[in-house]
């Protein structure tokens, strides 16, 4: 196990959460993507990418459970870097037995959310409530399989092509402009 990298990853995730908490206390975390938070996310993701290029994706066997969780948090928060998030998604999929399957589900849905597609596992919410899912029954089955908490069935919004637009964020101009600028759409 690489203890030096493990400590670094844990510290990066800790710093991320500290900055988030401070911005939340100050009432500056939202609306929108706070520039201070974005800088932390980009810096952490850039360093994580260097680590990945050196040792591969930081799995449990390489850096331990806590540091692997920290790496996932860094990836999950790297929303300004879609290419990086998708790269990590592929690496996590390839290392399925060495990473948390729940983390894989969250990352899958997060990518779908930013691309404007329905999610699969029901992990993402926005100001409207639960972000729409591909298939309600499949989502319920997958959540049970992954031992994720069940949702109140009334809160589940299933994607219906005849009702929903292809991009599930059609009316959020500021968000859509940001998604274009960073490369999600």
From TrEMBL:
One Pfam family named in its UniProt record: DUF6624
Full protein name: Uncharacterized protein
């Amino acid at each position: 196990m690489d203890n030096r990298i493990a400590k670094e990853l844990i510290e990066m995730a800790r710093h991320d959460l500290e900055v988030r908490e401070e911005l939340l206390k100050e009432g500056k975390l939202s609306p929108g993507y706070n520039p201070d938070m974005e800088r932390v996310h980009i810096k952490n993701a850039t360093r994580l990418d260097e680590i990945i290029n050196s040792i591969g994706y930081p799995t449990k066997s390489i850096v331990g459970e806590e540091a692997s969780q920290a790496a996932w948090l860094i990836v999950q928060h790297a929303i300004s870097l879609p290419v990086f998030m998708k790269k990590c998604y592929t690496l996590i999929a390839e290392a399925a037995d060495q990473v948390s399957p729940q983390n894989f589900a969250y990352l899958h849905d997060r990518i779908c959310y930013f691309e404007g597609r329905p999610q699969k596992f029901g992990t993402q919410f926005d100001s409207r409530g639960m972000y729409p899912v591909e298939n309600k029954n499949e989502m319920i089955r997958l959540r049970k399989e992954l031992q994720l908490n069940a949702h109140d069935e009334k809160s589940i919004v299933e994607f219906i092509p005849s009702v929903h637009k292809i991009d599930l964020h059609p009316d959020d101009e500021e968000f859509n402009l940001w998604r274009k600028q960073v490369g999600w759409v």
